[in-house]
Amino acid sequence: MNTTSLLAAIAALPLAAAANAQTAPSTVEAMVPAAGTVLDVTAEGHTTRTPDLATIRAGVVSQSPTAAAALSDNAQRMGKVLTALKQAGVAPRDIATSSVGLSPQYRYADNQPPVITGYQATNTVSVRFRDVAKSGTILDTLVAQGANQIDGPNLSIDKPETALDEARTDAIAQAKRRADLYAKAAGLRVSRIVSIAELGQDTGGSPQPMFMARAAMAKDSTQIAPGEKDVTVTLSVRFLLN
């Protein structure tokens, strides 16, 4: 190929590219349609479930004049608590250590430096009860075996996906209802949904008020009422009105 032919071929490349660009089909639709009125609606869908999982923190607090004695007493008492949990049928996967601590205890006096009077050891485990109805009885057993600090419960839903799907369906229905209302008020009609975005979800797993239990106070059987939890999903739905 001579120089003139080569230059002609190079000059033709941009023209061919431009022609291909003009004929290539568009595969991405714009988020804002070219014709019609766009309406954005934020809707929250709801459903309810009875919690089937209770999570509670059970701890042992021990005090002694020496650090070694405090740790030793704490370990023995926590061993009894763990044995009681296993005997009650709580699976090992549902028992997890939350914290272990050892701290000095001080006596304070005016114009004098603090004096160490002993040591406090703590050991806390997080326990999941998959039978909420039995969790109160197990708590009483833990207190009897040496647990002197308990807080919770955090009542939640073990497998919330089905409930979340119900809430999503309800959110779409609420969004459509509101879109129809706005369209009618504006003298328009809903043509179609342009986009859907999930903004958030809530399975109602917020902690319940904390309670403390000590062996000397455990006179009556502890009762835990699961009640109901609201499951919600929030969606942002974009509609096209004509």
Main β-sheet, spatial strand arrangement: 3-4-2-5
Percent range for helical residues?
Answer: 25-40%
Biggest sheet statistics = 4 strands, antiparallel
Instruction: Give the total of domains.
Output: 2
CATH architecture level-2 label of the largest domain = 2-Layer Sandwich
How many helices? The count is: 4
> What is the mean pLDDT?
84
What is the N-to-C succession of helices and strands? HEEHEEHEHEE
- Under CATH at level 1, the class of the largest domain stands as Alpha Beta
Number of strands: 7
Globular, elongated, flat, extended or rod-shaped: what is the shape? elongated
What would you note in describing this structure?
The protein has helices at 3-23, 67-87, 132-144, 161-185, and strands spanning 37-49, 53-64, 95-109, 112-129, 149-156, 190-202, 229-241. The protein has 242 residues and is of the alpha+beta class. The chain has two domains: 30-51 and 159-242, 2-Layer Sandwich (Translation Initiation Factor IF3); 53-156, Protein of unknown function (DUF541), domain 2 (Alpha-Beta Plaits). The protein is elongated.
Concise account of the structure shown:
With 242 residues, this protein is α+β, with helices and mostly antiparallel strands. The chain has helices at 3-23, 67-87, 132-144, 161-185, and strands at residues 37-49, 53-64, 95-109, 112-129, 149-156, 190-202, 229-241. It has 4 helices and 7 strands; from the N terminus they run H-E-E-H-E-E-H-E-H-E-E.
